[in-house]
Amino acid sequence: ITVPKQDPPKSLQQETLLEGSGEVVEDGDTVVVHYTGVLWDEEGGPVFDSSWENGAPVTFTVGTDAQVIPGFSDAIVGQKVGSQVISVVPAEDGGYGAASLEGMGHEADDVMVFVLDILAVAPAA
Q: Is 35 exposed, middle or buried (0-12, 13-18, 19+ CB in 10 A)?
């Protein structure tokens, strides 16, 4: 993931990089996703978490009762299986919040950048 050499956005930004052709993910669905997360940093942003590097995709619920931060979940709802999405997540707009970031060993104002590959979806019951 290449981060531009400019100041990060102050608000949540999301964009579809590749549009898939599978089912559309809806609020409350369970998804299987591979992802990589980096910090927005002029040096190129170190990877702080990656399901690819961890060796297995992750499964979680998206939408209103999401099991992940809004910046992660919101990037997936409305997308099709097979899509690749980027989500730029400031701490206070879709992210963990400043205090939580500091508790995780990051700076309070760090901006996280996720690239998410949507592999599968199971509709909400």
A: buried
Rounded Cα distance, 18 and 61, in Å: 22
Q: Could you tell me how far CA 14 lies from the centroid of its own chain? A: 9
Q: Measured between alpha carbons, how far is residue 9 from residues 40, 45, 46, 89 in Å?
A: 10, 15, 18, 9
pTM of the model: 0.90
Cβ-contact 59, 67 below 8 angstroms: no
Other Cβ atoms within 10 Å of 34 Cβ, number = 17
**Token digits for 37?**
């997360």
pLDDT tens by residue, 60-101? 999 988 889 999 899 999 999 999 999 999 988 888 888 988
Contact 101, 91 (CB under 8 A): yes
If one counts every other C-beta atom within 10 angstroms of the C-beta of residue 85, the result is 24
